[in-house]
Amino acid sequence: MKTSIIAVGTELLFGQVVNTNAAYLSENLNHMGFDVMYHFVVGDNPGRLRAKLAEAFEDTDLVLLTGGLGPTQDDLTKEIVAEYMGAELYRDEKVAEDLKSFFEKRGGHMADNNLKQAYLPVGCTPLYNASGTAPGFALSKNGKTAVCFPGPPRELKWLFENGAKQYLEQFMEKKMFYRVIRTIGIGESDLETLLMPLIDGQTDPTIATYAKEGECSLRVASQRDTAEEAEAAVDEMTARINELAGRYIYSYDDEELVEVVVRLLKEKHLTVAAAESATGGKFAAAITDVAGASEVMKYSYVTYSNEAKISMVGVPAETIDTYGVVSPQTAEAMAAGAKKVSGADIAVSVTGYAGPDADEGHNAGEAYIGYAYEGGSGAVSVNTSRNMRKWNRNYFMLRMLRTVYLLLTDGPEPENGSKKQ
Amino acid sequence: MKTSIIAVGTELLFGQVVNTNAAYLSENLNHMGFDVMYHFVVGDNPGRLRAKLAEAFEDTDLVLLTGGLGPTQDDLTKEIVAEYMGAELYRDEKVAEDLKSFFEKRGGHMADNNLKQAYLPVGCTPLYNASGTAPGFALSKNGKTAVCFPGPPRELKWLFENGAKQYLEQFMEKKMFYRVIRTIGIGESDLETLLMPLIDGQTDPTIATYAKEGECSLRVASQRDTAEEAEAAVDEMTARINELAGRYIYSYDDEELVEVVVRLLKEKHLTVAAAESATGGKFAAAITDVAGASEVMKYSYVTYSNEAKISMVGVPAETIDTYGVVSPQTAEAMAAGAKKVSGADIAVSVTGYAGPDADEGHNAGEAYIGYAYEGGSGAVSVNTSRNMRKWNRNYFMLRMLRTVYLLLTDGPEPENGSKKQ
Can you give the pTM of this predicted structure? Predict the structure, then answer.
């Protein structure tokens, strides 16, 4: 089905906001077999929005619009789409109630202009928004369909996953099934080379690799006449991928590494603690981002200074003096100390240079991941050779997760330091 | 001057690439006082590019195009623009020479199709590209101007800074100045209501509100004959905004809240520590994401369990038993304890229900932010009424930052708990 996307918002035309919504919707629509032909961006201007909506519907039958559904005066998308489709607005009592309780629960009063969001076009399919205040909706007339989303990317994604996607499935010619396989410990080009026998000349299922920060994902997709056939084709291909790359795979279901680690810790009734220097709490924050993390993490330590490494997790001052604060010995002592003081089953640590600058002839991106578990303790060296602070900190955190993942599955990383028994 | 931007590339319509070029050009064009009215994205399809180019020139006199200037068969932007302007192509010998030496320097031979890039429209202003192989160009006819850039962002930026910007200055009518004001602690609609006396019927400077996660930004922009007049108009409006909403403003210069907090802590030579339950390390991770954070944070505590609150930061067990773990009393004790054990000048804490579910009749999104500083200690209550764990955790973290920000500026939040002296 021929599709276009119209993003509404003057902030996009000012260059203040990048139009990631169009990329997100395009990727998902293409996965579903829709043919995205145009993106448009217009400001909060009724005349120009009216004109571009008409242009979009000249060439395409499905138009997705993002932004301009909020409570403010310049939010006009809903009104223009309803006008184009010749639909009146009605007050949707569910939205009105949701808005009232949303503001009541927060103990705040609701500014009257918020009720603007409770009006929807007659005959639309409402897309109720549990992730924000403005609902989306879908509206069809004479074979032309408009689907409207709020502009905040988080809300747009929630509404796409929880309503819009299901609504759009009625327009899919073929049934599609796909699976995202997540790997860690191998780069994109190496993974592609490894899987070339499967990728080469392959038409369906398709295999695509996506590099993410420090990870690589595989998307295996099939479009067949029935969902069952598509799923069977993906399953068969997944088995062949597993034969070639199984040792790098940590999820067949697009789980985040941290979700897998927390799930494994729960299953094994184990707890984890961290002593974080370079990541300054990112590991603990990632673990506790997963619902139910209180079962697996009780204590964690941000030991950003030498004194904190000594007083919070008992790193011997001599270790820092002798080997330096960024050393495998200090990393191992941090992990061993964190395990001891927290009583956790597994402890992991990091000490390193996040950058952008580094000290004493070390380069940014150099770090050591320490670990301690019943089988002993050790440290793994990491070196990104990048001077990008945030990238390095995220990568260090992923490597801490990988270290814990390997302890929970195959045991420590081969390149690790001393493994005492 | 009315302007549109057309990005050419099927990869954008697949969602594989985000259209950052449009944002970059829009921001720079707005700074120069151009009025960007549309962004378009089309695939590598001559018919559709031809159609959108004609549409863009219907409403706007200046069209910037990105992508489709390379050596391959589907690079068609130059040919379509030349055709639209009625210009033949000529072989530009400088480009041809540059291409030859480019490949010679790399010791490789040049594939013949690269010479395609040496052909430019007769009468154009070439934009020679020292950052890559494909030149850009500007071409005017009958008051309509097209400026073409290669798609790779690095090359586009180089060509904009080294040629295109200077070329476009001939069209500048007015000078623009704008400022982005960041606020926290007030929702978008409340902020708009508060500022309605300034927004209503306001033509220049314009005031626009943008909601971000847990925050809201204001963009104040003016276009005048001189940059000085525009800046003066924005300054005058900023002062009026400050009168109405000053207590919510934390930056007049589009800084992140965490950057402001770390800067203020450095300026005042103060250190901060946190005791984090619901946020599980997000506050410490945010502070240490800022380069040079080691000056302001030495120790921080992830006290995810009751035992950790007691043993790590010395919360009295009776406090938890008497008032509950999610209570202002526990939050205040966590902060007071964190200040004591870390020796930090300011300590902040959080205890609450991140969700998605909550316990004992409490709702997800309820939390208490504790603080302790030389002036005393207290706690602030927060209630988002959202069952979105990640959103709540991020909002709690922002409120912890706001609490520290207020301690560093106006003193504790008015709605806070006991302020002991």
Answer: 0.76
